[in-house]
Amino acid sequence: MASPLDFLKKGRLHGLNHVGVTVNDFEAAVKWYSEMFDWHLMNEMTIEGEQANSLAALYGEEDLKIRLGFMGTQSEALLELFEFQPKSEPQRTVWTRPGYTHAAISVTNVPAVKAELEARGVEFVTDVQFTNGAHWAFFLDPDGNLIEIIDYHALRLPMKFFPNLVGKILKKMQFGAYYI
After folding, report:
1. pLDDT mean over 153-162
2. Which of 20, 36, 55, 39 is nearest to 140 (CA)?
3. CB-hemisphere CA count at 13 Å for 78?
4. How does pLDDT run across 51-103, given as a tens digit for each residue?
5. What are phi and psi of 78, to 5 degrees?
6. Which residues contact 54 (CB under 8 A, 6 or more apart)?
7. Cβ contacts of 81 within 8 Å, gap of 6 or more
8. Residues with Cβ < 8 Å from 1, sequence gap 6 or more?
9. Is the pLDDT of residue 47 over 90?
């Protein structure tokens, strides 16, 4: 029987690299994410014409102008921003429909971070919650994309440095039935 990681024989799996988000205004989004989180634009490119049309199966439309760039964060993960022309109307995230729902930012002291972000005009859609050893809260970026701030407290270091190892240990314990 083949191992789930047989594909790695010719390459190496490094982990989650980035999250992509579509924004209405590229410059405004760069400024907002920089002001709120001290993240900075690392690159920028525009795709249009024939090159953009070759990606129509990916983006679902032809004749787009696509502007994108990566923002560096305080971790290995990056935030990729997309701006499309022509623009589409934003849609509210539907949590009950399969698909990605949000990005999460690891912080310490969720109440203090929430208060600071609110003082800067950020709109939160939840109060601070405490579930399974973690404090968390959700807010919206200027385009209505959901973002979570979360503090894992005592699990912060294992979650930062060894999340897959923690998962492998729990696979052998309480979550073993998922892998049968």
Report:
1. 80
2. 36
3. 14
4. 999 999 999 999 999 999 999 999 889 999 999 999 988 888 888 899 889 99
5. -115, 160
6. none
7. 20, 21, 22, 23, 26, 29, 30, 33, 68, 69, 70, 71
8. none
9. yes
